[in-house]
Amino acid sequence: QLCQAIEECKRLILALPEHSERQKDAVVRLIHLRLKLQELKQDPDEDEPNIRVVLEHRFYKEKSKSVKQMCDKCSTIIWGLIQTWYTCTGCYYRCHSKCLPLVSRPCVRAKVSHQAEYQLSICPESGLDSQDYRCAECRAPVSLR
């Protein structure tokens, strides 16, 4: 059924006018269908898949065990020797495998590729001091380290 949906989506893309919004949406749908097919073809013996797609992030399971990383979701250390972790290939968002279902921010690269417009006005937001040097979304402390 998935292969049939992919073929139908390809035909639809070719039938739609070039550079139209409907064609762009169909291309995004085709990408999601192909990723789903790729996930289904993963080795069933493996306990966690190598590729996970969450909110347009393309997360790949990391193999490095020695590099100390920080989880962008829970702001704690990822212990590579004992924890599985993923990195988005688009925006380099890193998180534990346990934090993957909790990711709430869509991939920045995917958003920019869909809506590539430049903001030419000066940013009206106030600085980090007004946020008590904390992330506006998750309230994790922002440091210079």
Automatic annotation (TrEMBL):
<dbReference type="InterPro" id="IPR046349">
    <property type="entry name" value="C1-like_sf"/>
</dbReference>
<dbReference type="GO" id="GO:0008270">
    <property type="term" value="F:zinc ion binding"/>
</dbReference>
<comment type="function">
    <text>Positively regulates lysosome peripheral distribution and ruffled border formation in osteoclasts. Involved in bone resorption.</text>
</comment>
<dbReference type="InterPro" id="IPR051366">
    <property type="entry name" value="DEF8"/>
</dbReference>
<protein>
    <submittedName>
        <fullName>DEFI8 protein</fullName>
    </submittedName>
</protein>
<comment type="similarity">
    <text>Belongs to the DEF8 family.</text>
</comment>
<keyword id="KW-0862">Zinc</keyword>
<dbReference type="Pfam" id="PF00130">
    <property type="entry name" value="C1_1"/>
</dbReference>
<dbReference type="InterPro" id="IPR002219">
    <property type="entry name" value="PKC_DAG/PE"/>
</dbReference>
<feature type="domain" description="Phorbol-ester/DAG-type">
    <location>
        <begin position="56"/>
        <end position="107"/>
    </location>
</feature>
<dbReference type="InterPro" id="IPR047983">
    <property type="entry name" value="DEF8_C1"/>
</dbReference>
<keyword id="KW-0677">Repeat</keyword>
<keyword id="KW-0863">Zinc-finger</keyword>
<keyword id="KW-0479">Metal-binding</keyword>
